[in-house]
Amino acid sequence: MNKKNGKYLTTGEFAKLCKVNKQTLIFYDQIGLLSPVLKSEKGYRYYSIHQIELFFVIDLLKDLDMSLNDIQLYMQNKSPESYLSLMYQKKEEIVKKRQEIEMKEKFIEAQIALIEKASDIDFHQVTLEQFPEATLYLSRNIENITEEEFVEVVSDFLNELSESQLDTGYPIGVITKREQVLKGEYTNYSFLYIEQPHPKEGHPYLKTVKGDFIIGYHIGDEKTIHHTYNRLFLEMERLNVTIGDYVFEEYIYDSVVMNHKEHYVTKIMIQVIDK
């Protein structure tokens, strides 16, 4: 065998072309995954240029989280049919991963927009704003349920957001009905929700809301939130409006960005109508 005829590559040359270290190729040879086409009497390994594509496929399968053991099993039973089946399978996995990455990108974009917007807000100001139509994905009703039932509803809600790719990156909020708020039961929520800028068909819990809202911000935890509601009610009296059907709450700053509850910020949006 004459290596100098240009048909063979040393381990170092082959490793350089494949952009890996020599130890990786030696390991692949030891486990029978990718062996050199020739070995000299002195133990030198030589690879063929045609093995580069095989290495790239192995590297691809590794990147797609296929174990070396599973790759070995394929290598021991290679055929055009099994290779085609494997490629179809990996294509499906890539499509799913791409969708997951796109979801995460949208989530991050929404989080950036929300935090940047929050940095310009005066949390001590109360405003009257008109909200355009918005579509919300709702949980099951959570009024007057036990703690165990509440955990179950939250779990189901989060699972559905994940499985149906409904997590838009917007904050998960709570809806409280008018009668609970008037009784001072500010934490007797009716639904969890998340806004859906691009709602998907086939989800029956999508509702739309629009109209005039009193907007205020509560700094602290829920134990003192009644003080902020009283402040908002005084502003409603001044504007000669009364509470509508629903009140919405969303965290602006929570445990994601603050270490202590006294620094949490909750956005309160009270639907109002003229008296």
Mean pLDDT: 90
How many angstroms separate the termini? 98 Å
Q: How is the largest sheet built, in terms of strand order? A: 4-6-5-8-9-7
- Biggest sheet features: 6 strands, antiparallel, barrel
Uncertain regions: pLDDT < 50 for 5+ in a row? none
Shape: elongated
Count every beta strand, where a strand is a DSSP E run of 2 or more residues: 9
What pattern of helices and strands is seen along the backbone? Answer: EHHEEHHHEHEHEEHEE
What Rg, in angstroms, do the CA atoms define?
30 Å
The secondary-structure class comes to alpha+beta
- DSSP strand content: 15-25%
Please work out how many helical segments DSSP would assign.
8
Task: Give descriptors for this structure.
single chain, alpha+beta, 3-stranded antiparallel β-sheet, 8 helices, 42% helix, 25% strand, elongated
Strand and helix map with partners:
Layout: E1 8-10, H1 11-18, H2 22-30, E2 38-39, E3 45-48, H3 51-63, H4 68-76, H5 80-118, E4 127-138, H6 147-163, E5 173-177, H7 178-182, E6 191-195, E7 206-219, H8 225-239, E8 241-253, E9 265-274
Antiparallel strand pairs: 1-3, 2-3, 4-6, 4-7, 5-6, 5-8, 7-9, 8-9
Structure overview:
By secondary structure, the protein is of the alpha+beta class. The protein is elongated, with a radius of gyration of 30 Å. It is built from eight helices and nine strands. The relative contact order is 0.10. Strand 2 and strand 3 (45-48) form a beta hairpin. The chain has helices at 11-18, 22-30, 51-63, 68-76, 80-118, 147-163, 178-182, 225-239; strands at residues 8-10, 38-39, 45-48, 127-138, 173-177, 191-195, 206-219, 241-253, 265-274. 42% of the residues lie in helices and 25% in strands.
